[in-house]
């Protein structure tokens, strides 16, 4: 496994990568500890059993914690859970751990190495077994052969005390976790081994480094299940479905490549990848060999998809406020019709959160909670609608749902929580 993203020449890289691999394999996955909630990016919490369609309409506000005292809030990241149950949020300048009663456990500043360069330097966080792992961008690629442009900073779960982690290439996507270690996606320019131009790198615990040379476009967080790795870059989906031996490099010629115009974050269920295309307005189901199994009409400018094995559906919303569900197994034809539909009127920009038969959907200025088992002929109006304060959209991040509560990070820098009345 290559988790340093440190770009040493191949002759010297083996020892460095092996040492880091040994450290990474001691990690332990935290449920809902990463963006997309799991290694497959399903945005689903299959363990939630308290909130359901019979009681979610009775929830009340539990707390409203402002984060504006911990730095500016123009580039907040996705909230995640730490292993101790705290909610981890980031401002532009700090990582903040919030207890489930809304009090702040700790806050740790993360210095910006180059504040004169615009853009966020805190890219994402992951709730590891004993630490909160922070992916930091220095915004400048370092000198060869290391070419380091980022780092992992590890913060103690209980105190927030920082220890230095490995250097990385410049981050290209949020941190993930799979196969007992971090999934780190980076990018490097004019690498001595990989050649001229931009190369995207994906390091997965227990295996080698996947690379995409000459990569063009935005990189989405990879979906990883075992040896299968799926990542969307620009207008293409890349998939590796066979082992990439630890200490080796597997380039894009060993991947199955599928054209998906303006591809969004992939979701992996069994061996099928589901993702949307912003420009051609479709949901794609793609097999491990790169074959498009079926597509469905996802409407105008669809958001990232979510999937629930329990419901048997993949869900996607769009900017006209329509929320669709399609069978995970497809329909036996190249084009499939939706088997679920809901209209929330306002624009949907983020993947819905799925838990215990409910979809938590962020629309402009509010949160809508609806059943996911409605048929096409019944009234499926939301079980709960909550107005969210803050700038337009209210929130731009996924809802966290766990242990009978849900948490929303709003664009005005507040973490808000709701739960059943006591």
Q: What does this protein look like?
A:
The protein is mostly beta strands and 422 residues long. 4% of the residues lie in helices and 41% in strands. Strands 10, 11, 12, 13, 14 and 18 form a 6-stranded mixed sheet that branches. Strands 20-21-22-23-27 form a 5-stranded mixed sheet, with no helix packed on it. The chain has a 4-stranded antiparallel sheet with strand order 1-35-34-33, with no helix packed on it. It starts with 9 loop residues before the first helix and ends with a strand. The relative contact order is 0.15. The N terminus is likely disordered.
SSE layout and pairing:
Elements: H1 10-24, E1 60-66, E2 80-81, E3 87-90, E4 94-98, E5 104-109, E6 122-127, E7 131-137, E8 150-156, E9 162-168, E10 170-171, E11 176-178, E12 181-191, E13 195-203, E14 209-213, E15 223-225, E16 228-233, E17 236-240, E18 249-250, E19 256-259, E20 267-269, E21 272-277, E22 282-286, E23 292-297, E24 306-308, E25 313-317, E26 322-327, E27 335-336, E28 340-343, E29 353-355, E30 358-363, E31 366-371, E32 384-387, E33 400-402, E34 405-410, E35 414-419
Parallel strand pairs: 14-18, 23-27
Antiparallel strand pairs: 1-35, 2-3, 3-4, 4-5, 6-7, 7-8, 8-9, 10-12, 11-12, 12-13, 13-14, 15-16, 16-17, 17-19, 20-21, 21-22, 22-23, 24-25, 25-26, 26-28, 29-30, 30-31, 31-32, 33-34, 34-35
